[in-house]
Amino acid sequence: MASYVVLLVIQGLFWSIALAADQSLLQDFCVSDPRSQELPSGLACKDPNQVRPEDFFFSGLNVAGEITNPVGSRVTPVTSAQVPGLNSLGISLARIDYAPWGINPPHTHPRASEILTVLEGTLEIGFITSNPDNRQITKVLQKGDAFVFPVGLIHYQRNVGSTSAAALAAFSSQNPGVVSIAKAVFGAAPDIASDILVKAFQVDNSVINFMQSKFKIN
């Protein structure tokens, strides 16, 4: 009887893992058809006979992105939106450029883990574990170093050098999504009620009003 119970537990464990994993493709590829309606699993496939090499191609990751924002970083995404051939493959990339002392502000990717490789410069990186510990895991990376950010956790990068830096990020999703913490909280449309944020952040209402004014969408 005990052996039977153990067998059922093991079988249930493998069944749970199978349900959690992405479904395997039953064809070579599924290049997205931009005319189709987006579904939870991605866009519908276009006719394989209409597929071209350009559907799997992206150029320009060797070029540094122009940085014009106050945080001092620029992200160049390579997701299924830019490369239709990534549709249903569960992977994507991004190049991140940093001005001296620029940051990629605290954010999360709700649908993907990330592995970041430093191409140039020196980056201080970190992520925060979930409640209740909220432990910060941080390290300084040099050119050629790589670091992993687990799916859904808040993380950031900062260029700690006096010259520009660059990194390449790989994601376990064709569309990892981004939630920028400050922008999401203080730039929500419509606004999150100020009394909620006053209690959440334990600050005066004037501070909340100021922060919301900084992140308003023009």
TrEMBL record:
S-S pairs: 30-45
Transmembrane segments: none
Keywords: Apoplast, Disulfide bond, Glycoprotein, Manganese, Metal-binding, Secreted, Signal
Main location: secreted
Localization per Swiss-Prot or TrEMBL: Secreted, Extracellular space, Apoplast
One MF term in the entry's GO annotations: manganese ion binding
Binding site for oxalate: 104, 109, 114
PROSITE patterns: GERMIN
Cupin type-1 domain: residues covered: 59-209
SMART domains: Cupin_1
Pfam family, any one: Cupin_1
InterPro entries: Cupin_1 (IPR006045), Germin (IPR001929), Germin_Mn-BS (IPR019780), RmlC-like_jellyroll (IPR014710), RmlC_Cupin_sf (IPR011051)
Biological role: May play a role in plant defense. Probably has no oxalate oxidase activity even if the active site is conserved.
Similarity comment: family membership: Belongs to the germin family.
Name of protein: Germin-like protein
Organism: Trema orientale
